[in-house]
Amino acid sequence: MSGGRLGLTYELVAPSREAARRFARALTVEQTVEIPEGCYSATLEEEVVSRVEALEPAGEGRWRLAVSVAPEIVGGDLGQLLNVLFGNVSLFQGLRLVAVEWPETILADLPGPTFGIAGLRRLCGVERRPLLCAAVKPVGKTAAELASDCRSFALGGCDLVKDDHSLVDQASAPFGERVARCQEAVERANAESGGRTLYLPNLPGDPAKLAARRESVRSAGCRGVIVSPMLFGLEATRHLARSRELVILGHPTFSGAFFGAEHGIARDVLLGQLYRLIGCDGVIYVNAGGRFPWTLEQCQAVNAALRAPLGRIRPAFPVPAGGVQAREVGLHLERYGADTMILIGGSLYQQGDLRRATARLLSSLEAAAP
Amino acid sequence: MSGGRLGLTYELVAPSREAARRFARALTVEQTVEIPEGCYSATLEEEVVSRVEALEPAGEGRWRLAVSVAPEIVGGDLGQLLNVLFGNVSLFQGLRLVAVEWPETILADLPGPTFGIAGLRRLCGVERRPLLCAAVKPVGKTAAELASDCRSFALGGCDLVKDDHSLVDQASAPFGERVARCQEAVERANAESGGRTLYLPNLPGDPAKLAARRESVRSAGCRGVIVSPMLFGLEATRHLARSRELVILGHPTFSGAFFGAEHGIARDVLLGQLYRLIGCDGVIYVNAGGRFPWTLEQCQAVNAALRAPLGRIRPAFPVPAGGVQAREVGLHLERYGADTMILIGGSLYQQGDLRRATARLLSSLEAAAP
Lengths: 370, 370
Description:
Two copies of one chain form a homodimer.
Chain A: E1 6-13, H1 17-30, H2 42-47, E2 51-57, E3 62-69, H3 78-86, E4 95-101, H4 104-107, H5 116-124, E5 131-136, H6 143-156, E6 160-163, H7 175-193, E7 198-200, H8 207-220, E8 224-227, H9 229-232, H10 234-242, E9 247-250, E10 264-265, H11 267-277, E11 282-286, H12 296-307, E12 317-321, H13 329-336, E13 341-344, H14 346-349, H15 354-367
Helix pairs in contact in A: 6-7, 6-15, 7-8, 11-12
């Protein structure tokens, strides 16, 4: 990458070098001027159209393309950044964005985590071991039932308890009531046990209700929330992070279509870089060996991206989830290291006594501390 | 579908009926309670877990699955609706959402188009022929240059002129200046020609600047905007539509990853139903035979979904784009019918004289009127 430009690496599917060259040219035009050659000036060709920096074979019928983009065309706009990365070009086929190099001028408009790994450790009072987050669920339970589960998780010693991302404002557990009751239950449990469990409600994205819901979260005394950036809005997530008030755990719902083998955005770019850059202090993903077909290598790539140095942007916690079995947590942590937040729901519920199951799991986390 | 429930049809990839049954069960649990069996009550199994209504073979290793969902678990929330449709289940593989049946209780929370086909025809003063929209571009031009292009398109008789979706707030053409100059240029052209061209600026999604930008749009006198729902935010798009002030043209950027052959959401569901339901008066998609690999059948499915009866929701204009050639417009309209808005940019710019190229194209549209 030439200095100061946004560096993008794609994998292309193309039958020949000539076809790959044509694809590369189509991509550089589509992600910038989006108009046929000859319809714009030589100055715009030089200043606006992205530059092919390298095009190399990457296996049978695959090519690795590096382009660079002038940050001026992004104009400090997150939506336009995503237009350039994978906007109209998402409508092609056989194209994966696999790496991004971020110049300072682009990073300047991205808040990154407010707390990050170090800040979240301070909030939870946990210096070295991995963090434990429990998920309270399912939709259909009353606010009182959910609060009772929160209490058990907190008494068991969980560092965080988060709402299931499907809990919004259903009649079974309306938002304001749920947030107040769950937070109160966790605070009482903390007072009894001397613990410091944080409760993070799921914050739905409707802009008409957002201010009132943030006020409910604030007045209940919650320190953070979970949001689903693809639904809450990527722009809205960045905006929330910029207020620097709340811990934000990012949930991967509705993102799965991006993770095609030949088309989409690599997991470590979307969840590991973009979710972190727009402000997530921790990013939930679906763990290898759980209910979803993700490989260990894919998970490790997300972990690495969340923790890697990235200008002034703080590192964020990887949060493996989605069918993590309590009995296998030691194995996961051996692989993933201490700067990991394990998110467990079902496996604790399966053990019946939530408090005891949580306490047992926590002992194994303490044993795994470096 | 049983009455009043949300009906969802998916295509699954599974090697046997037994594997398809297991996939179906995993899906119904994942899209609702998201917790292992045995961890929730029989009441929640009955009231919350979605029901398998049918599972039929659909070709070699493919299955067609119909499920129904109690609308209560959606709780009037757009994000949670998307969670149910393709949220966590997007993280599976080999799963496509191909059809949705919308009960009244779900539709009640979705605004649909404010103007729709009939309202947009009234605004443009065009009773029967297809509408013509020109795209002003590219990024890198000054506001004065873009305004000059707008003037030419308007004098040529275009019904609408829209910003390229990459025009945000770049230093080359800052948002407020661009909107004011382009709108003024179109109004002057209208005054000279007696035309009624509408100018639709691209509205970026940053919530910190949204109120001021809407005020710029309003004070300039624009009647509508283009938004890119996947970037602007699906929730934010619905919120904008609910104000019932502006024509909204929806742009498909960043949506392409959803259109996998074996995984994702069918084009007619995402662009044809969801974009319409959240409030787009017209939905831009990439036309068959243009720069993108979409088939005529896929385009026709989007057209049909945008125009089909859907409770009280108004029909929206299909807006084929992405390499539509001016000389082929007659052919497209023969296929697509008069209730179509043709969006052309590059092919007009290629002809050099924008005003003459637009006027020529308009004649062919008038010839194609029913």
